Amino acid sequence: MIHFITAIDTDAGKSIATGVYARQLMQQGHRVITMKVAQTGCTGMSDDIVTHRRLMGIDLLPEDVRGDTCPYLFPFPASPHLSAALAGQVIDPAHIEACVARLSGDYDRVVVEGVGGLMVPLTRVRETGHALSVPSVGGLVEPLAPGLLLIDWVAQQGWPVVLVTSARLGSINHTLLSLEAIHRRGMPLAGIIFNQYPPAPQAMAADTREVIRGVVQRDFAGAFWMELPVVEME
């Protein structure tokens, strides 16, 4: 089984949530591996994969060294489509899918961490062959519309989604927008991971939980709710 971990925004706690969720699956007796669709702002070994392994309490795996668990790694910290372009590369979703398939053959649970939020572009229009005429802005002539969005690629795979959110200011809006996008595409929501970091005033945290739980119970019956405590990384 494959689960896709995403979040309402970048830096919302996806990597911590992925590692903790994978550890729970391991404790249930599953053979588990995590992977990252792509990582930007990093060179060498994926920082997020290292975080996963530390939280899972295991060393790096041969699949990590081979690159199967992070097929794309780019040094410039930006949306993956831009980071890839600046590195002279193009993200090929079929390559990511091949890595997932290899991992699925050896593990009964594959937890796939996304990159950024749900609507981040994986490719640009030019890379997917869609024609678009865009006026020059500041002398830079580039297609402005995205090609393949992360959410649409995940929807094509049919993977259950786990959405990471929190009580920080703005989370209700971002969470409901994410849930609406998931629901509109008919994607299965496996569950919500509520990140308790950064800490929020009690009234705000309680209200955020209530609002999000209400929408989840209405639109995604059976989805789990998991509280993610503040995790101290040594």
CATH architecture of the domain at 2-163: 3-Layer(aba) Sandwich
Low-confidence stretches: 128-144
Radius of gyration over C-alpha positions, nearest whole angstrom: 18 Å
- CATH-defined topology of the domain at 2-163: Rossmann fold
Sheet with the most strands?
Answer: 6 strands, parallel
Query: What do the pLDDT scores average to?
Result: 91
The total of helices stands at 9
Strand content: 15-25%
Could you say which overall geometry the principal axes of the C-alpha atoms support? globular
Give the CATH superfamily of the domain at 2-163. P-loop containing nucleotide triphosphate hydrolases
Could you give the order of the helices and strands? EHEEHHEHHEHHEHEHE
Helix content: 40-55%
Structural class: alpha/beta
- Strands, count: 8
Q: How are strands sequenced across the largest beta sheet?
A: 2-5-1-6-7-8
The end-to-end span amounts to 31 Å
* CATH class wording of the domain at 2-163: Alpha Beta
EC number: 6.3.3.3
Protein name: ATP-dependent dethiobiotin synthetase BioD
Binding site for ATP: 11-16, 48, 113-116, 195-196, 229-231
Binding site for Mg(2+): 15, 48, 113
